[in-house]
Amino acid sequence: MNANSQAPSHAHGASPNPARTMHRIALLLSAIALAASASAQPDYDITTLGLMGPGYVDSGGYSASYAQLLNNAGQVAGQSIRYGSGDAYLGSDAWLSNGTSTQQIGLVGTGYERPSDGYRTSYAQLLNDAGRVAGYSQRYSTGGANLGSDVWFSNGASTQLIGLIGTGYERPSDGYRYSYSNLLNDAGQVAGNSERYGAGDVSLG
Description:
The chain has 1 helix and 10 strands. The chain is mainly beta. Strands 1, 2, 3, 4, 5, 6, 7, 8, 9 and 10 form a 10-stranded mixed β-sheet that branches.
């Protein structure tokens, strides 16, 4: 072969670069995946929660409910505003919903409602994955005075008073007491605190 001769070249240019080809394929696949993701429809349902109907809607049809707690089972706890005659504000009730039905929870009735107008207030504070709720309800005297709050525990079907009450945990002059829940585990056990009182209504921690 002549020393000046050159190696034959490809008739149609340089040979293809395998690395560049694979890069173009990867880019094409990424573009297809992004387009599919953008066109996919979100999969969710919208459900109205809270307490509704008489007592929770004013004369103009206005109602207000607030979701406060959500567990891993999809259950929600919250509160709904209450209305009375002339659209008077009557506090709020706590509730628990599983997305299908909503149950009122909290302490109600004598001692937890202001006698003059029925005003009452309950709050859900803690919710576990078993659908158990701990919260508190405000207390009132027969004359409508604020007497603190009691802690309660609810399984969604019934609500029970918990916390420390009686001598040493109530103010001697008027029966005022105050308890608060701090922790709730999945077994339904609650930990909290109750204030103590001594003679002359002295606070003892």
